[in-house]
Amino acid sequence: MNGTRMRIALFTHSVNPRGGVVHTLELGRALYEAGQDVTIFAPSVGGAPMFRASPCRVVLAPAAAHGNDTVTMVQTRIDALKAALLEEGGAAFDVLHAQDGIGGNALAELREAGVIRGFVRTVHHLDAFDNPRLSAWQRRAYAEADTVLCVSDTWTRKLRDEFGIAASTVNNGVDIARFQHVEGADLCNGLGLNGEPVVLAVGGIEQRKNTLQLLEAFALLRQTHARAQLVIAGGASLLDHDAYTQRFAARATELGFRIGKHAPIVVTGPLEDAAIPALMQRADVISMMSLCEGFGLVVLEALAAGAPVVVSQIEPFTGYLDERVCCWAQPADAASIADGLRRALHERGGIDFEHAVPDLLARFSWRESAHRHIALYGNHVQRIMQPLGA
């Protein structure tokens, strides 16, 4: 470590656009702009590039294809990250920071082998796995970390109260400029967005995203907004959501909704990086009806794009949002969600875009997040550099 400049390695699970990967790239950029030496490690199948350019050095760890076997996929990516770090020389970094369980297990194994002294792990949220090996991997990734961070006070409390883990909260940020003054009319037209209004949900079709309940709410909304269109964007996930997606498609058919371009429901799948800001600016309302989130960065992105947002009235959202900046709805109640969508469509839900929204967005900057990380990294380095056995 040279003065206050550290060599920092950030580990993420994929090169595809998911929340944790976005967090890694944006944090890396902010740390770089703060004068840190940052390298980002990510597994890559078939040499696929990182979905968004970064000013940081990016190491793509070659990972074999895995089909639909989640356990094999996780093991393959753990091994890929371990090999990449060994090749780069793990001891050359002051801070090794995993953003997910895959990176966390790679670092835990190297720590157990005596290759590295310790590591940092950020917990965004925890999943409930039926497979015992996946559950064990998830726990090891935070239980064996020397420093644990969370992206919201909600998860910091959960780790303390339910697992006895002392964590520190380091909030997400939002790149406001990225979601303003976007040129994307051609892209939106190409996807067949012709609804009046357009309801947008980001993150694909997943149980955690509560997409089936949103579908039921959309059916109720169409009773008063006959030309409404539901757009579900993104969905580049490592986990298998096929069964849930099939249930969604079957229920859409029962409700009489086609899925496709210019249809009542448009499912885009993974999109190019510029597409999400363009879709957010095109949308009349954005739905964030998740049942479980670490923070819910989409909410801040939607507000930065100037779109009213309907949000699950549960933690972590209730920890940083209020009725001045969003329309609340109960995620288990389709009628509540439909009512929230209608309120958001009427005079933009009364959301205070002039004062309350700018104040909220100003509280969450990647610059401030980077400074908080740097301070915690300093404490982490001092702790792990104590003489062994001290």
TrEMBL record:
Residues 18-178 form the Glycosyltransferase subfamily 4-like N-terminal domain. Residues 194-348 form the Glycosyl transferase family domain. InterPro entries: Glyco_trans_1, Glyco_trans_4-like_N, GlycosylTfrase_MSMEG0565. It comes from the Bacteria. Coiled coil: none annotated. Gene3D superfamilies: Glycogen Phosphorylase B. Keywords: Transferase. It holds the Pfam family Glycos_transf_1. This is MSMEG_0565 family glycosyltransferase. It comes from Paraburkholderia bengalensis. The lineage of its organism: Bacteria, Pseudomonadati, Pseudomonadota, Betaproteobacteria, Burkholderiales.
